[in-house]
Amino acid sequence: MKPFLLLATRPEDVPADEEYALFLRYTGLDEKDLRRVRLEAAPLGDVDLDAVSGIFVGGGPFNASDPVAQKSAVQRRAEADVARLLDEVVPRDFPFFGACYGIGTLGAHQGAVIDRTYREPISVVTVQRTAAGAADPLLADLPDEFAAFVGHKEAITRLPPSATLLATSAACPVQMFRVGQNVYATQFHPECDVEGMTTRIRTYARHGYFAPEELDLTLAAVRREPVTHTGGILRAFVERYAR
């Protein structure tokens, strides 16, 4: 099998390594079949799409909607690398799955409106499939409503014409969309579990996701309801596109 790529942007080793381990668990891949590239550490370079089965983009502390002047040199380079890759991925309709920060990169590339209107605190929310989502192979085995982990400062306010809305929620209209037939992104975290969310809460406690005095409330928020279905989305992606 040709490997999948995971493009990561977390500069902190503990959550970065835990994210990789979670992707391995929920995709069912092993390390030789899921090659991680840490974009915050070095330029991406050229990617031969014919040599891989598909591409994942994980979450991270970057915000696509931040003014360019406020973005670090590392963020600008990482975003340029992903945008250049999407210049090839989207026209080819090549298998791609962006989670959380990945929805910002794909959304920005396609001309979506991204701002802080629909930001969500770190928690568990109920996500609903749209009619298109119910017909999509990645969501076919999920119920019409399912619990998912969220936590983001920005979100998509308006999708571009190229996108098909697959999932939504009461507080954030765009939770998952598809471009073409094979290019996906989610606002929620399909790769995470309670332990992974706990690590991220503690790591990013001073990054503006919640007030310092809300730490215990935020830790409790990710435990208030079991999240049992979203990891299957990643497994379905691998089963569909492994080649």
TrEMBL record:
The keyword Ion transport does not apply. PROSITE patterns: GATASE_TYPE_1 (PS51273). Pfam families: GATase. Residues 49-193 form the Glutamine amidotransferase domain. CDD domains: GATase1_1. Keywords: Glutamine amidotransferase. It comes from the Bacteria. This is Glutamine amidotransferase. It comes from Microbacterium pullorum.
